[in-house]
Structures are given as C-alpha cells and as structure tokens.
Design a protein that fits this description.
Elements (H helix, E strand, L loop, with lengths): L4 H6 L7 E4 L3 E5 L9 E5 L11 H21 L4 E5 L15 E6 L18 H10 L3
Antiparallel strand pairs: 1-2, 2-3, 3-5, 4-5
Bound molecules: adenosine monophosphate and zinc ion.
The site of zinc ion has 6 residues, from helix 1.
C-alpha cells in the first residue's frame, strides 16, 4: 500500500524503534506511548483490519505478541499489560494497517479507568446471540 505508514516502516523507508522482526511480523515502540514500552506488533504485509488478516499471519502475530509481552512486562517492571487491537474509526483505529498494542500498565496510571459495562434489556442478550451465531 503506497500511502500506508506501517508498510513504509516494514519496507525500511521510515525508521522505527524496532523490538522484534521475523519473516511475517514486525514490532516496534509506539511513538506516542500510553506508558514507556508501549509496543505495536503487526504483519509486514498490508491488511486493513483483523477481519481480513490471513490465519497463518494472525497466528504469527499473536505468538510474537506473547513473546514480546513477556519481555515488556519484565523489562519495564510493569504491574500489568493490555493486549489491545482497534478496528475501524468507530473503535479508535487511526492507522489502517492491522496492528496489536502491547501496553505496560501500572497501578493507578490513569489509562482505561472505566469499563462502562451495561445490562442487557430483557430479551436482547438472546436476540443478539442469535444474530452473531447465524453469521458463523
Ligand atoms: P490505532 O489507533 O490503533 O490505529 O493506533 C495507531 C498507533 O500508531 C498510535 O498509538 C500511534 O501513536 C502509533 N503510531 C503512529 N505513527 C507511528 C510511527 N511512525 N511509529 C510508531 N508508532 C506510530
Ligand atoms: Zn500497510
């Protein structure tokens, strides 16, 4: 993808603070970290979202993410770690090249302080379940 910044990083056209690389996967520090050590993991090949990434490439990204997560957690002495992934603008995706965030967390660091879960109105859990299962 000619205009994709993460493709340009994967091709070495734009520099990055590289954490890890293999045939399929690249990982580097996020330039605007939630906390120091906030890392991105992505396929070298361009896919826009989780919905179209090939399974073997996804597997490689997830396995690399676990390895890198352990290094981050230990390396920056984190108290916790988020593994996050945004798809489409409504979910906060800014770069249209699928990527995974590994974010080291500390007690009271102020990120994601609320998880505003709601209750389903009567019957909506069952109807929602049917809509999703019908698509599998
Ligand atoms: P998302 O909102 O999930 O698309 O996240 C995009 C992330 O990419 C943000 O956290 C940005 O700080 C990060 N980012 C954007 N450009 C660069 C870059 N050149 N190097 C490293 N991280 C970047
Ligand atoms: Zn790309």
């Amino acid at each position: 993808m000619a205009d994709c910044i993460f493709c340009k990083i994967a091709l070495g056209e734009i520099p990055c603070a590289k954490i890890y690389e293999d045939d399929l996967v690249l990982s580097f520090l996020d330039i605007n970290p939630i906390n120091p050590g906030h890392t991105l993991v992505l396929p070298k090949k361009h896919y826009t979202t989780l919905l179209e990434i090939d399974p073997d490439v996804l597997e490689a990204c997830v396995l690399a993410s676990q390895k890198i997560a352990k290094a981050i957690y230990t390396g920056v002495k984190a108290d916790g770690l988020n593994f996050l992934q945004n798809n489409f603008r409504a979910a906060g995706q800014l770069i249209d090249h699928v990527h995974f965030h590994l974010i080291p967390r500390y007690e009271n660091d102020g990120f994601l302080t609320a998880w505003p879960g709601r209750q389903y109105p009567s019957g909506e859990m069952e109807s929602t379940l049917k809509k999703i299962v019908a698509e599998l």
